[in-house]
C-alpha cells in the first residue's frame, strides 16, 4: 500500500507552531525512523486509522495499555457511564475502592496502595517513600532500565561497572544524579560490589524486572534473586517497576512470573484501561509512612479519578478471565516463531524475542540480548528501513528500534498472519 501523509503533514506543520518538536512526547516525532509522524484519528480493535484514512495493524497500542485493543465495548461503556456522573471530584469515590480491591485480591504482597496519574509519578513517589522509610539517600538503578522522566533516575551509567550516575538530560543537577548508583543489568559482580561499597547508605534499588524500555532485556532469574537477597541483607527497599510488565505478561506481572516478591511495586498503563493512571503499593510497614498516616508527602488532584478507575476495572475484569494470558502468549509465539524461522532460513541477522505478549526484534545473531550495551546503535538505521517497509505493508510498529511491541486480545488470527507476512517481506526488502 502507498501511504498518503498529506493531512498528517498539515497537522504536523501546525503542531510545530504549538509544541516543542511538534509533539507532546519526544519519540512521537519520528526522529529515529524519519518522515512525518502519523496523526491518528481513531482506533478499532487491533487497528488504528490515521488522519489520511490509512489503516494499520497496531503493534504499539499506546505503548502497551490497550491490552484489549482500541475502543473495547466494555471499556467504552464504563467510561461513558462514569463520565455521565462526573469526571473528577478531587475527593474519594467508590471506583477507587473497587479497582484497588480487585488488584490487591490478586497480588497478595500489595497490602496498601496509592493511585497516581502516571507511571512516572508512581516511581517518583516510591523512591521518595524508600528514602523516607529508610532515612537513606542513595538509590540503585540499572543501565538500560527507564523509569519515567523523574530527575533522580534520569541518569546514565558512568565510566565504571557500578558508578554514580551522570545526568542524561539538561536540567538535572549533577548533585542529584550523584545520589543514584547505576549498575549494569545481569552483572552479579557489579551488583555485589555496589552493595559491598554503599550498602548502609542505599535506600532502595529499582529495576524493571522485565526491562522493556530499551529493548526487551530479559534477565536471568538468578540476578533478580541476588538483588532480592542483597536488599534484604542491607535493609534496602526493593522496588519492581512493573509499569509495562504488570498485568501484561500475566495478571501478577513479573513478580508472579519469577516468584520474587518486591517490597514495593509501581504500575501504570493497563490498570487505567487507556486513561492516564499510575499506582504504587506494597508492604504495610512501608506504606504507613505515606501521608496522611506518615511523614512522606505525596498527593494528586486527579489521582484515582473515576474515569481511569472505571476503565481500569472494566479492562482488568476481562484480563482476569481464565485463559486470557495464555491466548495472548500463543498468538505472540506464533508471530515470533514465523518471523524467526524466515530470518533463519534466509541467514538474516535478525531475531524477535518475547515474553508473554511483549516482543522486540533486533538486528543481531542470537536469541537474547540482556544488557543495554549489547545493542548496536548502528542497527537503528536498519530498523528505520524496516519501520518504513512495515508502514507500506499496513503495520504500525513503534517509531524507535529500542521500543518493544505488543499483541492485544483484539488481534485475530488474520492479524497475526498479516503481520508475520509483512515482517518477512519487509526483512527481504531491507536485508
What labels would you give this structure?
2 domains, eight-stranded mixed β-sheet, about 15% strand, about 425 residues, about 35% helix, Aspartate Aminotransferase, domain 2, four-stranded mixed β-sheet
Chain-wise SSE layout:
Layout: H1 6-16, E1 40-44, E2 47-50, E3 55-58, H2 73-83, H3 94-106, E4 112-116, H4 119-134, E5 138-143, E6 155-156, E7 163-164, E8 166-167, H5 174-177, E9 180-184, H6 188-198, E10 202-207, H7 221-234, E11 237-241, H8 253-258, E12 264-268, E13 278-282, H9 284-287, H10 306-319, H11 324-346, E14 351-355, E15 358-362, H12 379-392, E16 395-396, E17 405-406, H13 413-430
Parallel strand pairs: 3-16, 5-9, 5-10, 10-11, 11-12
Antiparallel strand pairs: 1-2, 2-3, 4-13, 6-8, 7-9, 12-13, 14-15, 15-17
Helix pairs in contact: 2-10, 3-10, 6-7, 11-13, 12-13
Over the alpha carbons, how many angstroms does the gyration radius reach? 21 Å
CATH class of the largest domain: Alpha Beta
* Low-pLDDT runs: 157-163
Task: Tell me what portion of residues adopts beta-strand conformation.
Answer: 15-25%
Instruction: Summarize model confidence as the mean pLDDT.
Output: 94
The CATH architecture of the largest domain can be given as: 3-Layer(aba) Sandwich
Instruction: Write the CATH homologous superfamily of the largest domain.
Output: Type I PLP-dependent aspartate aminotransferase-like (Major domain)
Determine the CATH topology of the largest domain.
Aspartate Aminotransferase, domain 2
Please bin the fraction of helical residues: 25-40%
The tally of strands reads: 17
- Biggest sheet strand line-up: 4-13-12-11-10-5-9-7
- Can you write the helix and strand succession as a string? HEEEHHEHEEEEHEHEHEHEEHHHEEHEEH
Number of helical regions: 13
Structural class: alpha/beta
